[in-house]
TrEMBL record:
Taxonomic path: Bacteria, Bacillati, Actinomycetota, Actinomycetes, Actinopolysporales
Organism from which the protein derives: Actinopolyspora alba
Domain (HTH cro/C1-type): residue spans on this chain: 16-70
SUPFAM superfamilies hit by this protein: lambda repressor-like DNA-binding domains, RmlC-like cupins
SMART domains with a match to the protein in the record: HTH_XRE
Keywords for this protein: DNA-binding
Name of the protein this chain belongs to: Transcriptional regulator, XRE family with cupin sensor
GO molecular function, one term: DNA binding
GO CC terms of this entry: cytosol
InterPro entries: Cro/C1-type_HTH, Lambda_DNA-bd_dom_sf, RmlC-like_jellyroll, RmlC_Cupin_sf, TransReg_Diox_bact_type
């Protein structure tokens, strides 16, 4: 199992146990509600197994939590996920894998932008309203992006998230760069 998949299983294990205990239900009851074997659920809570998207979706529905709550990593204020390093959850019956980069918090809204940076240009941004969080995924080119005092070096496929309520910047490094910018407002 690859490192990102091991990390995903550990995250799922902790989240499943937390949400099951919060709901006050037994392993047997959750397994019954989700249509999953009790032994499978026990393995998942022990950090073993390799659940597919379908299994996790059924468990999320049975626990009455968004799917993302079972697979999301703890989030520091600034985070970078390198291309291919997001914990992957694979489908059971298809060549499909999903890596959750960030879940939308309750009560928040999001705007999504495609940004294009010319070589060497720096876009310095003033702080936005408190509670604004920015998510940046590089599509092509290389760039620096994030808090002005500590921007991350990013390559195609890399992801970072940071507070938009502090001075921040976007800078193409080398040549033109394209990225997806998602602004979350709460």
């Amino acid at each position: 199992m690859r490192g990102s998949e091991t990390e995903a299983i550990e995250t799922i294990s902790i989240a499943l146990r937390h949400h099951r205990e919060r709901a006050g239900i037994s392993l047997s009851e959750l397994a019954k509600r989700a249509g999953v074997a009790k032994s499978t659920l026990s393995q998942l809570e022990s950090g073993e197994g390799n659940p597919g998207v379908e299994t996790l979706w059924a468990l999320a529905v049975a626990l009455d939590v968004p799917f993302s709550r079972l697979v999301e990593l703890p989030t520091p204020h600034t985070r970078v996920i390198r291309a291919g390093q997001a914990p992957k959850i694979r489908a059971e019956h298809a060549g499909f894998a999903a890596g959750l980069l960030s879940a939308c918090p309750a009560g928040a809204s999001r705007d999504i932008y495609e940004i294009a940076l010319e070589a060497g240009e720096i876009r310095r941004a003033e702080p936005h309203q408190p509670g604004t969080v920015e998510h940046l995924i590089v599509v092509s080119g290389s760039m620096r992006g994030g808090p002005a005092d500590e921007p991350a070096e990013l390559e195609p496929g890399d992801y970072t998230t940071f507070s938009g309520a502090v001075p921040h910047l976007y800078q193409a490094v080398g040549g033109p760069t394209t990225a997806v910018l998602l602004m979350e407002h709460s």
